[in-house]
Amino acid sequence: MTDPKCFESFMRSYQNMVYTTAYRLLANHAEAQDISQEVFLKAYDRFEEIRDSPRVGGWLKTVARNMSLNHLTRHRNRWKHFSDFKREGAEDEIDFEATLADESIPFAGSDEMKERRETLDEMLEKLPRDQRLAIVLFHFEDMPYQEIARKLKVSLSKVKTDIMRGRLALRSKLQSRKGELGF
Amino acid sequence: MKHDFQSPWEEELHKRFKNLPELQAPQALIPGVMAKIENREQKSWYRQSLYNWPIFAKVVACGVLAGLGVLAFAVFDFGWNSAFLVDAKTQVESFLTYIDNLVSATGRAAVVMGRSFLGSYALFVLLIAFFSYGMFFAAGTFIWKTFTRPAEPLSKERIF
Questions:
Q1: pLDDT by position in tens, chain A (length 183)
Q2: Nearest residue of A to residue B154 by CA position?
Q3: A104 shares its domain with A176
Q4: Which residues of A touch B33 (CB under 8 A)?
Q5: Domain containing B96: what range?
Q6: pTM above 0.80, yes or no
Q7: Cα dist. A109→A61, A101, A117, B18, B20 in Å?
Q8: What whole-number distance in Å separates Cα of residue B26 and Cα of residue A82?
Q9: Facing A108 at nearest CB: one of B16, B24, B151
Q10: From the list B1, B25, B34, which residue is nearest A36 (CB)?
């Protein structure tokens, strides 16, 4: 039988990492919290196996990532209408000003890093979903292009295009805030 | 994994992303997880999702579902082929004979396949092991559920 105090302590060690992984992919607090809960429920079922494993952090991150992607796939398949279909390579219009500002996200870190984080993460959240997913999987999860294409069930060219466009969008926005971030 | 970047900007962006600190998880996350665990543990095993059932129960459930599927197929197939039978008694007898032939044929096929893959001796041992495991598991579950004290909720203090 798993000691609940021990498991709580385990969760405290990894909750930020799991939540961050889910949030960067989903860009939604409620969904990220739900996914994080599911990840830890899964971890509870296997707690005796994983508690002392040196790779438990990697396992949690992988589970959080896969659950988030599965959630996005299910959501996309359920609510997709013909009008939502876009051909590959179609231009995505990014209008950051028109995007409603998300609620302020609690942050764990120094004030300077908090400001930096609010700008970069804020911009990342406001990217179109396909671009955000590709960028997060490439830069945060260190996945190669082919694996990203396989995970997202899209073509390799679309992944490369999304990453390129996402970077360009971030660059144009960041350059306008060059002084703030020290670029 | 080390990426090959095409420009200094890409590499710089990658470093900035890597240096971004983690977000703070919501305060409600841990209590939410513990509450779900407590709810789950208070339920009897048969009230939980199939994923959390004991292995023996899962196998039996799958067997029952497979049997229902075969029965549905048999009813359809028999009904399709025996429309000319008017007498109800003859229909029932014919149906039972059909089921008997189907089960026998399935059992013979399973034995033949088992012998082909495992050999007669290994198949016999496997069958004995399977039924023994099932019998002891069922008996153990019954004894544990009937005679042992149920688990206390996680929210209360427990002595380990």
A1: 678 889 999 999 999 999 999 999 999 999 999 999 999 999 998 898 888 889 999 999 999 999 999 998 877 655 554 444 444 444 444 444 333 333 344 445 566 666 555 678 888 888 999 999 999 999 999 999 999 999 999 999 999 999 999 999 988 887 777 655 554
A2: A4
A3: yes
A4: 11, 37, 40-41, 44
A5: 52-147
A6: no
A7: 20, 21, 9, 14, 10
A8: 36
A9: B24
A10: B25
